[in-house]
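Problem: given the chain below (148 residues), write out its structure.
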Amino acid sequence: MQTTPGYDLAKEVMVTADTFLRESQRLFRPYGLTAAQYNVLNVLAASADGLSQRELGDILVVDRSNVTGLLDRLEKAGLVKRTDHPSDRRVYRVSLTAAGRKLWAKVQPLYAKVAAQVTAGVGEKQLRDTLTVLKSLQAGAVSWRLPE
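Solution.
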């Protein structure tokens, strides 16, 4: 079967994402985290006022039902807390607890070192160009439609 460069790129992005996910478990597992849970902690660590569950789902590109399950487990572990939104009773604000921030502060530098190892053989310009391409692919993936 002959393929196109776009097809090959999409396939390799998926293979790379799966590889990153599988290998990241070796880093996160000793801290009782999954890659998805680390991503939640990482996003919340950058938000001083917390985020709504919807905002969190939009940033992580995760379905709302998956966000709820992730937050239930993280809340049970004492790593995040949900508080009522000040002006909308239907919405929760999600933020890190002190324990969640402490765990994130321990794991984040390790993740940064691993990311540096993984990208060590790639030049800075190539990294920036790749980021641009990946953002384009993300935008395209969000808006794709089944072929007719």
